[in-house]
Amino acid sequence: MKLHSLVLASALCLSLSACMSTLSGDSYSREEARKVQTVEYGEIVALRPVVLEGTKTPIGTIAGAAIGGIAGSAVGQGKGADIAAVVGAVAGGIVGSTVEEAATRSQAVEITLRMARGETIAVVQAVSEQDDFKVGDKVRLLSSGGTSRVSR
Question: How many CB atoms lie within 10 A of CB 59?
Fold first, then answer.
């Protein structure tokens, strides 16, 4: 039973990585498809590498706590096993949260644009292999519902 629970918790952790979305300029969510976007034109005046924080959902904490609790309960017998399970669950929750944040952290770029109308703005988006932006590039700024992205 304990091995079955450990395998189940591990499978949950691995499946989380498949659910991660991307924040690059060439990726759209299903909700963004077929919606009108405003298109503006501008020129890149500065580029700066930045890091997007990873997600901090309860999923990593819960999965880590489950794995830690199961592993801890295998230590000792009686009250010792109960105490080890609690300590394992707490430590596993902390580790699970940290692992989730680190696994979902990504490289991004802050793109400063001088828009055709004269305004200067900045947009942060995940780094994409397709977007090898350079200062001086003419680009499009696509915006809809509070979400903006820079593309060619």
Answer: 17
- 13-17, 27-31, 65-69: least confidently modelled range: 13-17
SS (H, E, C) the chain: CHHHHHHHHHHHHHHHHHCCCCCECCCCCHHHCCCCCEEEEEEEEEEEEEEECCCCCHHHHHHHHHHHHHHHHCCCCCHHHHHHHHHHHHHHHHHHHHHHHHHHCEEEEEEEEEECCCCEEEEEEECCCCCCCCCCCEEEEEEECCEEEEEC
C-alpha to C-alpha distance for 5 and 73, rounded to whole angstroms = 12
pLDDT tens digits, residue range 16-60? 444 445 556 666 677 767 688 999 999 999 999 998 877 777 888
| Statement: residue 15 has pLDDT above 60 | no
Q: State the pLDDT at residue 129.
A: 80
Q: What topology does CATH give the domain 36-53+107-152?
A: OB fold (Dihydrolipoamide Acetyltransferase, E2P) (2.40.50)
